[in-house]
Amino acid sequence: MAVLPSPHDLQQRLHDYRAFDEARQSEFDFLVQSCLRLNTERSTLQSDLDDERNTRRSWKKRAEDAEALLQRKFVVVLVDGDGYPFRKAFYDALATSGGSKAANELYNEVMNNLKTAEAFPSINADCDVLVNIYANKNGLARVLTACDYINHPSQIDQFFCSFTQSRSLFQFIDCGHGKERVDAKLRDTFRFYAYNAQCQRIFLACSHDNGYIAELDKYRHDMIVVPKVMLVHAAQTPSAAKAYAHLPFKHTRFDKVFETTALDITTKMDAAFSATHLSEPYVDTAKTQQAVNEATPIPTRSTHSSDNSAPGLQPLTPVNLNTKSTSQVASPPPPAEVARTKPPTPANSANGTADTKKSIPINRFGQRIDLKLRMPSTAEMDKFENRISRRKLCNEHHLRDNCEAYGCRFDHDPIDASMRNTLRYKARSIPCGQGSKSRRLDCFYGHQCPWGNDNCFNQKCGFIKNGLHDIKDLEIARFVPAATTTY
């Protein structure tokens, strides 16, 4: 018969069974918690994996779309139309779609340049060509009319209508009056395309003057923009040619499209000046006068120096032209800014023999009239700008020989007659503080707006403030003695 364990053994066994059950339960709890934790981690990793997969697919699609967009590459041609006139042959062919011929010739020049391997090895020859021509349409039309490119300013609409209709990406943009309007639009458009990945090349036709040097110089060390830009040279001033030669951009010429020399209105006007005498009646060439008026920017006033107007401004002073008789002129009546003379009768002489060189010309209302000045030639203007780029000329010294400023900071070095005429010409763009009642003989300021009351669109023009826009009658009625005192 088996012997039962002692009470002590039974208690010990019970304790061991309880400890084993507790250890097993603890192990079960640990395994369950581990499973729950691992399941949570797996869910998180699965979510992250799904996000990465979706992101990858999204970027892959965007990359494919971007690559598809980049397949349609294009080049841009930006033209300052005021400084880059088309060749006269295109305007002569106006009746046979001269504008369309100009557009096709420009397109061919661009494509031929693209096919040059050393210039553009990575551009497809079938890429799109976008052309924007920015200009002051009214001013350009008047200049072209004055230079006999077109017969009437309205014909410019016919030319550029044919130009834009020939190709869908060719545009002519009228920026309105004022040079800075054209400059601003061209600069901002250039900035827009400079970093555009689809735009492979930018042809810039704007190197006729120094107006864009500062903008282009910003990109001198930009390795994205520099290889993309191609300057198109045509007619240039000597200072502009020198300045653009120091820029790191490649350059070319489209001589079959744009004129290689600047349009010279002054040649015709200078010829007329030599034949004009103060005491002879004359009739102005209205379209030539208006062309220069429209193409000339509005100056601002300064004091006693050649800094009164910015370099490059060419204000139109009253001009007398007598190349044709009154019956031969078929153009509209002359603009208000041109003084029309008749045989004067000096106020201080009953027999009309007084010296008019020491008198002041006035109209029938007693308003002072500015006599004509010879318009400086392009070469004279370039010489003048080069001179004042170093130091501004002193108006009081050179035009009155009476500079009273102690330690004057302006240039008193000698100048020749042509330089003095150019300085006087520029000074005429500043309104006289005495207005039309000025009687100072050596007053070099302007006494009526040189751009004409009807052609000046500057609402802040200084001639308005001084009441010099109200002078309508520019016919010299008589001469009056000059003031004996200065002011």
TrEMBL record:
Residues 297-358 are annotated as: Disordered. This is C3H1-type domain-containing protein. InterPro entries: DUF7923 (IPR057683), Znf-CCCH_tandem (IPR057654), Znf_CCCH (IPR000571). It comes from the Eukaryota. Residues 422-466 form the Tandem CCCH zinc finger domain. Residues 71-258 form the DUF7923 domain. Transmembrane segments: none annotated. Residues 297-330 have a biased composition (Polar residues). Residues 387-415 form the C3H1-type domain. Signal peptide: none annotated. It holds the Pfam family zf-CCCH_12.
